[in-house]
Specification:
The chain contains 15 helices and eleven strands. With about 350 residues, it is of the alpha/beta class. Bound molecules: zinc ion.
Length: about 350
């Protein structure tokens, strides 16, 4: 190679390195509205469009989830009506996840009735089914023991979901904080919640299944149904340690998680070891979906609702995209954003959700 060519080549390399600076690698706060995003865990139980209006402004698609919160079929059916209504108004924005109720679990034919209900939801466009923590933590067997997720009575329902090529969102168990004394809990929201709801504070109820019992039952369900498309809601209840969550990802290579209502635990771990948290999100970004667990039941002022949505979404965008010093009422003290690469941010905020829930396919 002549001296001239060598010089030209070296100049070219230098220029390409220069052009590959920070603004190519990372997003800024200002990129927030321009980038396509999804919040995969929300609950809209009203006919009004206030939630989706803000989502359109902030460029979010949404997964609207039914949950057996009241423990009744009526509750499930009512929620699905709203989910369907929202979807019909904005079909490209929403994906629908339905649920089954365990109200009549002990009556003959529960699985058949559940399957018939699920079929009717799938035929109306639902892409998945939510299983909630009442299985494992509330539902009692006839001998007063808790019914766990790996119970064979759920087998036909899971088999059917797989046959219909639908997915499951599983919120099993609770944050580990639920099994710790108040003073050892890592986030303010958990401490406040369990102080006000001692009946759900499992540290006070050692006779009930342990945290590990809940995780084992969920994992045994996944072992029973290796073809099941499973998204672990709330960081699969392994929100307390990214290394433990990474091990779970390795154990279940097709499973994904959502981050709904667990950013406090992410912030807390960031305060302990930012580099470890950054490496985790960078490495597993194609298994992680951004989510909030926010909702609208029609009762709050539209302006308050929309301001809160925007603030939470922008806070989390800032955390993942930048290295800013931040504060949040979820944790005490400050923490620094983890500034993931654009590729990882795209995965967490959209691409994983697109794959799991099929956004952009209709
Ligand atoms: Zn939820």
């Amino acid at each position: 190679m002549s001296k001239y060519l060598l010089f030209a080549f070296a100049t070219f390399i230098c220029l390409s390195l220069l052009s590959c600076g920070d603004n190519e690698m990372y997003y800024t706060v200002d990129d927030f509205a321009a980038v396509e995003k999804a919040d995969v865990h929300i609950h809209i139980r009203t006919h009004r469009n206030s939630f989706v209006e803000q989502a359109i402004k902030d460029n979010f698609s949404l997964v609207n989830i039914v949950v057996d919160g009241a423990g009744t079929w009526e509750g499930v059916r009512n929620q699905f009506k709203y989910v369907k209504m929202q979807h019909e108004n904005h079909p490209e924005r929403f994906r629908m996840v339905t649920a089954v109720s365990v109200e009549d679990f002990h009556e003959p034919g529960w699985a058949d009735r559940s399957i018939a209900w699920l079929d009717s939801c799938f035929d109306q466009g639902a892409v998945g089914v939510k299983f909630w923590k009442n299985i494992g933590m509330v539902l009692k067997d006839t001998n007063q023991q808790n019914v766990m997720l790996d119970d064979p009575r759920f087998d036909p329902v899971f088999k059917h979901i797989i046959q219909r090529d639908k997915m499951v969102v599983g919120h099993l168990g609770e944050p580990l904080n639920c099994w710790l004394p108040l003073e050892e809990m890592t986030t303010n929201n958990d401490r406040n919640y369990f102080e006000e709801h001692p009946q759900y504070h499992m540290y006070l109820h050692p006779e009930l299944p342990s945290y590990q019992d809940q995780m084992d039952a969920r994992n045994q369900r996944l072992d029973k149904n290796p073809e099941l498309k499973f998204a672990g809601a709330h960081m699969a209840s392994i929100e307390w340690n990214v290394d433990t969550l990474a091990a779970w990802f390795e154990q279940y290579p097709d499973a994904t998680i959502d981050l709904a209502a667990r950013m406090g635990q992410v912030f807390y771990q960031t305060q302990q070891d930012r580099e470890r948290v950054r490496n985790f999100f960078q490495k597993y970004s194609n298994r992680i979906m951004y989510a909030t667990d926010l909702g609208d039941n029609g009762s709050s002022e539209v302006e308050n609702l929309q301001t809160n949505l925007h603030e939470v979404w922008l806070r989390d965008w800032t955390y993942f995209s930048t290295d800013q010093q931040m504060e949040s009422d979820l944790v005490n003290g400050s923490f620094q954003g983890i500034q993931l690469t654009k590729e990882a941010v795209n995965n967490i905020f959209y691409n994983t959700a697109r794959r799991v829930f099929g956004f952009g396919t209709q």
